[in-house]
# Entry
Amino acid sequence: MLGYSVIEAGSGQEALELWQRQQARVELLFSDISLPGGLDGFQLADRLRQSRPGLPVIFASGYGDDAFDEARAAAGMRFLKKPCSIETMARTIRSCVGNTRPAN
# Structure
């Protein structure tokens, strides 16, 4: 809807498997904090950032930001409370990947 290419995974483990094959295409991790399959969004981000420390990360959750700590914010990770407007999502994504992407 915003003009970005999306690689979708059904679980944290599936996301790790996709990362192994497609990491050159990934510019941003957008993940819920709670994921099925035993690996949460925080663990996923930590694993991906082991191989690419500067990877931008946006976490989304409907449960509030209680689990999102200052260390993650200091590391440049972002948090979006669900639901959020498409405008808020677009603005947050653009702030992470730069203004070279579609503004729609």
